[in-house]
Write a structure and sequence with these properties.
Length: 358
């Protein structure tokens, strides 16, 4: 049954929701203590139960990828490791999932890379607008030496990186008018993920960014608290945003990875052979998940789900990239000159080796 729609609510001014520039010292200390002492909520006898979570609806590529990972882990360990998928709504948004992992309330999460800056600021670099020219380059970077190094960096905070799922390129959806150029968003309240970089990028082009947890987005669009949003095609379909948005513009302004992290406490309770299986199963699940993402992240999939939505494919992305370019300079100091140089050089090397790169 379709969710009810309603007339848009009042358009009163709404201040941007401040993003918490929070570290999680207590959570990190608890996780590290568990890891150091070898303690874990996992059972000592019987199968090891991995409490896993992610924020998306069933049928979303990340949801299906996590389910497949659990199946592979169970098969490859002959039942010694089993996943229990935990509903993310009991925790809140993605930042809450990270905290739950560090506090020992979860054992494994598939999380948007953008929110990992609350653990380690290095992940800000992967959030920059128009960083990757295409999907192949993004995936090649993540699977390469520098990309994989980001998975290892939070180990000091008690998190074990396993692999990257794909969350795709993000595009603009809107209700009242099509969005073709950056200036079309001026004065509009745009839902963003809880990312300092994303907030800065939309503020740079004159929009009013409203960082909102994924599961709250539909209702806020329905009630008129926000005017527009930005999501990948699979997320628009899974969250049925086409019921409250009339236009979708292929701006591809951000690419988002979805890394998988396991708590050090849970990892420490696995036997070496089981750890090896968890890593190999993660790689198999990644291939499966990216295949599902490829099948869903297409305009045809969106128009089949929502025949009435107006898709704008003829977008001048160069104008969007120019408009958001100051954000890269703004975060350059925090990211670090050497890190930024290495990042851009690695991406350029991948592009140079791809004869079909634009």
């Amino acid at each position: 049954m379709a969710r009810p729609t309603a007339p848009k609510g009042p358009k009163d001014a709404m201040p941007p929701i401040p993003l918490p520039a929070r570290a999680l010292p207590r959570a990190a200390l608890v996780a590290l203590a568990f890891w150091a002492l070898g303690a874990s909520p996992l059972a000592a006898d019987g199968p090891q139960i991995i409490r896993a979570s992610q924020i998306f609806e069933s049928g979303h590529p990340i949801s299906l990828g996590l389910e497949r990972y659990g199946e592979l882990a169970r098969e490859k360990t002959e039942g010694r490791v089993r996943f229990k998928i935990v509903d993310a709504t009991r925790f809140g948004g993605e930042r809450d999932l990270v905290e739950a992992l560090q506090m020992g309330e979860l054992d494994l999460i598939a999380i948007t890379s953008s929110v990992m800056d609350i653990v380690i600021s290095d992940f800000l670099a992967l959030d920059l607008p128009y960083l990757f020219p295409n999907l192949a380059t993004a995936r090649a970077f993540l699977d390469g030496p520098l990309g994989l190094s980001y998975l290892r960096r939070p180990e000091g905070q008690g998190l074990i990186g396993l692999t990257y799922f794909d969350n795709g390129f993000r595009n603009i959806s809107s209700a009242s008018k099509p969005i073709l150029l950056p200036r079309d968003l001026r004065g509009l309240r745009v839902r963003t993920i809880e990312s300092r970089v994303h907030v800065a990028a939309f503020r740079e082009i004159g929009a009013i960014p409203v960082p909102t947890p994924y599961r709250d987005m539909y209702q806020e669009l329905l009630e008129g608290d926000i005017d527009a949003s930005e999501n990948s095609i699979p997320s628009v379909i899974a969250n049925r945003l086409y019921e409250v948005q009339n236009y979708y513009s292929l701006t591809e302004h951000f690419y988002l990875a979805s890394p998988l992290f396991m708590s050090g406490a849970a990892w420490s309770k696995l036997a070496p052979a089981e750890r090896a299986v968890m890593r190999s199963a993660a790689e198999e699940a990644k291939i499966f998940q990216r295949g599902v993402a490829d099948s869903q992240d297409r305009v045809l999939s969106l128009t089949q789900a929502a025949p009435s939505i107006g898709v704008n494919a003829n977008i001048d992305r160069a104008s969007w990239a120019r408009a958001m370019a100051p954000v890269r300079a703004r975060f350059r100091g925090e990211i670090g000159e050497s890190e930024m140089a290495a990042l851009l050089a690695a991406i350029e090397e991948i592009r140079a080796g791809d004869e079909f790169a634009p």
